[in-house]
Amino acid sequence: MARLDPSGVAIRPYASGPQRMRHRAFRSLARRCAAAPCAILALAGLAACAPSPPATLTLATTTSTADSGLLDFLLPPFERDHKVTIQVVAAGTGQALEIGKRGDADLLIVHAPSQEERFVAEGHGVYYKALWHNDFVLLAPGEDPAGIRGLADASAAMRQIATRRAAFVSRGDNSGTHQKEKELWAAAGLRPDGPWYLSVGQGMGETLLLADEKGAYLLADRGTFLKFRARLRLEVAVEGDLRLQNPYHALVVNPERYPHVKYELAVKLVDYLTSEPTQRALSGFGAAEFGQAQFHPSSEEWRALQAASGGR
Fold first, then answer.
1. Rounded to two decimals, what is the model's pTM?
2. Cα(55)–Cα(83) distance, rounded to whole angstroms?
3. Among 223, 257, 1, 6, which residue's Cα sits nearest to residue 126?
4. How far apart are CA 218 and CA 169, in angstroms?
5. FRET label pair with 15: which of 33, 108, 126, 179, CA 20 to 30 Å apart?
6. 73 in helix, strand or coil?
7. Where does 141-264 show beta strands of DSSP type E?
8. What would the CATH number be for the domain defined by 55-134+247-308?
């Protein structure tokens, strides 16, 4: 009767030399085959234990939140705590809203309220929340050829620039800043045109540098201007007009229209940005470096807390 070796292969006793060699080779092959499933399971186990890559959240945002340094300040703690990578797509507000309409972002941070409200009304966005605000400033070269420095009425200043045909650089990119500029021209009863008016289709930082190079007037958000101020000769000429207020909002792209949107994670980011600790942190952002904050908190949570504490 044949006996079985540990691999389960039958071995006949008293085999000849060549037969024994064939038996040994066959046993070796059998052992390797028997061990193969174990090796596959071990590799599968290693793969299961390997850390999964972090989730990715796509944020389409106006260039001013990126150029000012605000997102570099606010986002890393959220990325660390939630093990997520936030892919920031910095564009003008108009472009950011178009990205949202295509479903190519999970959430937006923008600053053109009339366009934002239309975006929500058309069913593209949900979870629409106030974040923070700053203001726009009208910048002038040092010599101020249009003589607008100190004017309280921003539209009157724009009219004076056009009357003098003084060089003016426009972002021309359908951004929130560009929309505000067009509102001011409309309030002045003007549609700017001519060689003195340069529309560049660039973000806030690039437009600031170009206007400075050309010695031209420019409308800018205060946060980005402060970030770039050390590199500029342009100076604030007009500020404080109520029409120059600049609110920012967050919107989550509607998951019912775009099922791939990471809705729950996007909502968590919005909740983080509107929370009291984050709002308090951004209230001092830039103050040590520039002598004034670049942005001011304005979320519902922050306003409720300020009301409850008497503004303290």
1. 0.81
2. 7
3. 257
4. 5
5. 33
6. helix
7. 168-170, 197-199, 218-221, 235-238, 245-253
8. 3.40.190.10
